[in-house]
Every structure is written in structure tokens, then in C-alpha cells.
Design brief:
This protein has 195 residues and is mainly α. The chain has helices at residues 5-17, 21-33, 35-66, 70-91, 94-98, 107-115, 118-132, 139-173, 175-192. The chain starts with a helix and ends with a helix.
């Protein structure tokens, strides 16, 4: 089985760059205290993302090793989840995302945010079960992909910290078009799971 790099990266980029708890907290903190002083919080988020993604990957890898028949079920569940995300992104109101509460800008708060972020847990399970595990196994490979997800997350957070107001203005102005494009990309990701 070949690894679906385009589908993997498309899914990871859409999930990490669309507004959510991580990006909005980073944007709010960076606009309040500056990019440099927000860095501990952003690094805490990245640490939490890598840790949870790794844990989800290891859990799924263990299950996949015990019950190989679970892969087709997870493909269907993952595809349905991607279609659900496509619908949610299509319906997103970017202006409402700006009003989410601000979190403290500490490393620990960044990590703790990830343990109460259901989007991350579902995202981690989906990326590991539908893209990584089944092609790659074992702690080193899963850790490598978790770090790759963390790097994309860091790029997203840095983008929101540096260009957040510009990103949000663009999303607000062209929100419906952006939503349609992102939703269609997720529909592609859902379909590509079966190709």
C-alpha cells in the first residue's frame, strides 16, 4: 500500500490552518502580548499536538495490530468524519471564531488547551487511522508523523500570530468562497481514502 502524501498533507494543512481553539487563542494572545511573548504558549500547543497525535497513533496501531479488520471500518468512519468537517467548514462563520475566549500565554496553558480540544483528538485519530497506520507501524514512524503534524501546526500558529488580522480579514471578506474551497478539499480527502 502506498502512502497518500497529497491527501495526508491536504488534510493536515486544512485542519491546522482553519480557525479553531489553537489558532484563535494564538491570534488573540499574539495581538495582546506580541509574537515573541506568545511563543511559550504556541510551543505548548505544538507539544500537546505532538503528544496527543503520537498517543492516538500508538493506540490505533495497537488496535490495528490486534484486529486488522478494523481498517475498513475506520476508513468509513474517517470518511464520514471528513464529510462532517467539510459541512462544518462550509457553515463556519469566521467572525464568530474571533470572539472565542482568550487563554493565558504560558507553555503549560498551551499544552493543557490540547487536552480539552476535542477537534485535536478526532483529528489525530483520523490522520493516524486513515493515513499513517496501515502503511507505517511502530513508535518511531508514528513519532515521525506526529512531529510532522506538529511542524505544520507550528507553521499555522506562527502564521496566525504574525498575519492573524490579515488572515481573518481575508476569511471574513471571502469567507464563503474559502469555506467552499476548503470543504471541497475535505470531500476530496474523504474520497481519496478509498482510491
Amino acid at each position: 500500500m502506498l502512502f497518500d502524501w497529497p491527501g495526508f498533507f491536504l488534510y493536515v494543512v486544512i485542519q491546522t490552518f482553519t480557525p479553531g481553539p489553537n489558532t484563535m487563542s494564538t491570534l488573540a494572545n499574539a495581538s495582546r502580548v506580541g509574537v515573541k511573548r506568545n511563543m511559550p504558549f504556541a510551543l505548548g500547543i505544538v507539544t500537546g499536538v505532538v503528544g496527543i497525535t503520537f498517543a492516538c497513533g500508538m493506540i490505533y496501531d495497537s488496535i490495528h495490530q490486534l484486529i486488522p479488520q478494523i481498517k475498513p471500518v475506520m476508513l468509513v468512519v474517517g470518511a464520514v468524519y471528513l464529510l462532517y468537517l467539510a459541512w462544518k467548514i462550509y457553515k463556519t462563520d469566521f467572525e464568530a471564531e474571533r470572539s472565542r475566549p482568550i487563554k493565558g500565554n504560558t507553555y503549560l496553558n498551551g499544552i493543557m488547551l490540547e487536552f480539552v480540544n476535542p477537534k485535536l483528538i478526532l483529528y489525530s485519530l483520523t490522520v493516524m487511522s486513515n493515513y499513517v497506520v496501515g502503511v507505517y507501524h511502530g513508535p518511531l514512524m508514528i513519532a515521525g508523523f506526529a512531529l510532522l503534524v506538529g511542524l505544520v501546526c507550528f507553521a499555522s500558529l506562527l502564521s496566525y500570530a504574525l498575519f492573524g488580522s490579515l488572515i481573518l480579514r481575508t476569511l471574513t471578506k471571502y469567507g464563503k468562497l474559502v469555506n467552499i474551497v476548503l470543504a471541497l478539499a475535505l470531500v476530496y480527502c474523504a474520497i481519496s481514502l478509498f482510491l
